[in-house]
Every structure is written in C-alpha cells, then in structure tokens.
Protein: Glycoside hydrolase, family 43
Amino acid sequence: MESRRTAMKLAVAGALGISGSGLAANAAKKDDAKFKPAADRDGPRWRTGIEGQRIADLGDGRFLNPVLSGDYPDPSVLKDGDDYYMTHSSFDSAPGLLIWHSRDLVNWRPLGPALAKPLGTVFAVDIAKHDGRYFIYIPFMKAPWSTDLPSFANTFVIHAPSMEGPWSDPIDLKVGGLIDPGHVVGEDGHRYLFFNDGKRVRLTADGLATDGPVETAYQAWRYPDDWITEAYSPEGPKLFRRGDYFYLVNAVGGTSGPATGHMIVAARSRSIHGPWENCPHNPIQRTHSRQEMWWSRGHATCVEGPGGQWYMVYHGYENGYHTLGRQTLVEPIEWTPDGWFRATGGDLSEPLRKPRGPAQPHGMAHSDSFHTDRLGTLWNLYGSAPAETARIAIGDGALTLKAKGKGPSDGVVLTQQVGDRSYEVSVELELTDKTSGGLLLFFDDRLFLGMGIDGHRMTTWRGGKASYWPEPAPPARRIFMRITNQEQVVTFYYSLDGKNWTRHGVRSEVTGYNANTVDNLLSLRPALYAAGEGEVLFRNFTYRALA
Structure:
C-alpha cells in the first residue's frame, strides 16, 4: 500500500526545507547526555496494571511518561468541564478514532470508536465543542480502496450530542489538499479551521460547511537551517484563547526521521486574523540529542489541567523502541510574565508531579475470549474499505474471519495496539475450506513477521514475505500459536494441544520494523490474518506483558 507520509509530503511541498548538517549551538551542550531507559535506572519504574501492562501513574503523586503507551500519535485533547477527551490519528484502522476519557490527563479509559466507516486513511484530527455539540474534523487521505475521494487529502466533519456518540456519518467540507485541521472561534464569533502550511478557512455557524475561500493566514516559525531535521513540514496547528491572546501551536521539522527533527513551536495574536507573533523562545520543546529517551517530540495540544496547571499533550518515539510507534506524552508548561509559555518537563525521562484530578482505572485488557464485540476498541481491520467489516463475526467464544487474498499482504488482517517493551501473545486457530491463517506481528502490508498454516505446512513470514525457512511443523487444520517479543527479539512457538509447545527454529530481531524503514507512520502490532477461500476461526487470544 502506498505510503501516506509520501502523500503528506506532497501537501507541503512548497514549504519543505531539508536541513543541513550540525545541531544548533544552544543544543550541542546536551549531546553528551547519557541515556538509560527508565526501567534500567535507579529509582521508580513504571507501575503495572491489567495483564502486567505498564502504566504512567506511579501511585505516589507522580507519573512517568508515556501516559498512553503504544501507537497513539497526533493527540487531540478536549477539556469539557472536569472531563478530558482525547483521540488520535487512526490511519488505516477501521473502525477508527477511538475516544479516550480522563479526569487527570494521566489515567485514560477507552469509550469506543467515533468513526465506524472511515472513507480513507485518517490523519491528525481536531476535537471541538460548540454550542453544546461535539465535532471531530477529519482529513481523509486517498487510499487504494477510497476511489470516491476527489483529492489526495479531503477534510470532513462528524458530530454528536455526546463524546460517547452516536456520531454522524462524515460530512464533506469540500476542502482538498490540506491536512491537520485545527478548530477555533475568533473574536468575531465566527468559526475557523486552520491547516498545515499556514492555511485557513471560515466555517458556517453550524460548523458543517465552509463559508469562504481557503486563504493563507500565518507563517510557522522556521528553525536554523543547520538543525538536523527530516523536513520543515509545518503542520498540526492547534489554537486556543487565553487572556488577550489567541495562541497557535505548530509542529515543524518532520514527523519521523532524525531524532532531533520534530518540534513544537508557538505564535500568538490579539486577533484571529493576525498578525501572528512568533514566540521568542521557540522551539517550545524538541529532542536535542539522540541520547535522550524520547525522540521526535511534537504535535502538541495545550490544555488547562485540573487545578489550573497547564500541560502540553503530544507524541514521541521511545528511544530503542520505534516499533511501538509514536506514544502519547504529557508535559507541564508554565506561563511567563510576558504572556508566553515554556515547557518544564525536561527530557521526560524522570517522573513528574501528577495533575490533581481524580484517577480512574487505566487502559484495557488486550486478551479476548471473543464473547463480546470489541471491534474498534481493541481490534481494528487493517487497510480495508468499510464494507470489509462484514468479513468479521465475533461471538460465542470465536472470532471468524472470512478470508480473501493469498497472504497477509492482501488478506484480511485484524490488528491491535500494544505499548509494552516485552510481551507475549497466543491464540488457537482452526481452518475451514481452502484457507490459510495465522498469528503475526504486523507493521503494514509490506512489513510483518509471524506464522501461518494452510492444513499442509507452516509458512514462516519474515520481512513482509514468506521466508525460505521450512519449519517442520506437522500438517494441521487446528493449531495453537504463540509469539513473544522480548525487547525486540521475537520468538515463535506452536502446539497441537495448547499444552506442549515447540519453539520455532528461527528467531528475529525487529528493531528495524519501524517508520524510518518503510516510510509509513505505524507500529508493529499483534495481528490475526485469513487468506484464501473460506473462513478461519480464532479462539482464546491472550496477552501478557513480560518483565
């Protein structure tokens, strides 16, 4: 499948500026810092929750990032009284836009998906509330199966009376070629969407159509040319009003690539119409050295937390664990006497004081007995048209996938996100008719690994293709499979009875299964697949984090 990041770069081609060599002098002093993973340092480690999953809340008034571990990029956060709601780019997952709820910005519980039928690949969205109604503004990128979208990027909106839904079908705003909408109400009372590359359009009062042309409204701050970044790529505008000013927070420097690329910058204006003044101490936050724990930090939403303390919620890659994707981070900010804000969390490798709000149980179980439908909350269909969900049936202790294609690259693939450095997954599967199926760790349709059976032999998948390795597994139409990922070293196991396990003859090191390898902003995820003609039944999927 064609990379969405390639499409995104075309959108901002006029603004791209690949940087040269060397870091800025003010960052060089940090280059010699020594990185040690949080779990290896003296002092607090992450607490564990459901199934041993790591959680940020340390239980002593502090928290240790990430607040959402795993591939939860481009966070958009809405403060609604004492409640906070958040969603993320869901890309090629269907259903999409899983909504999370919190009272303290650290402990989050899933509510459910807002987008039952994505019209294309979902890039960074914005959540808004206006006149008692909730809105999510969505850029749909043209995918191979989304033939009806007129542009490579298309802005739509969905709305609901509650963040728990029901959400409307997507409404076309007829804005093409732009990404990352950011909603704001101006001092003139009108509603606006800001986009990447400094663009803006006015909305109608109901927020469901445009009310004027797309225009250039601002120019994002530009960093020195000798900083090591991926590309200039001004994107992700998030706007809010505080006191006499509107604040516009942008991401620049590219979303992946070099560790020091992605960054957070800010501007302000007394009017939504400008002129916009760049913050004198931009960037607000960035990674200064590849030795730091969190890389490519950017795409921030600023939000007032419980008790009046302000925070930035953004994403970053965990050093050494790019396979987990861009994870959600929370950092406190402070307001300066001259009305700007500064980041105060440092490199986020140490615990921070937890926001005051009440905690709630965090996260969700990743094991599934398939007695209830958790599609869109736990499981997502990969890279498929909305009608393809008809291939999935869940209930009575079984997940049934109606097969298609020849293998994981073009078959039915169901994935779930994980956020632990080490974990184990297992499942029982049974074939019907002329099918094949199996258990994978899946990045995208070009990059995955795992095991599959067709009733005659076992196929070993590595590097997104069938391996030369002829694993001598017995022919079977019913088998148990297990995969462990122990700090990027992956081992396969199989069993005919679920009790006596055979270790697969090949192990894999999977550090390279990441966005910088295949130019796609996703993560390595446990997955189930079905290919051929007929159905594959899965039972008793189990997950546990490993120490």
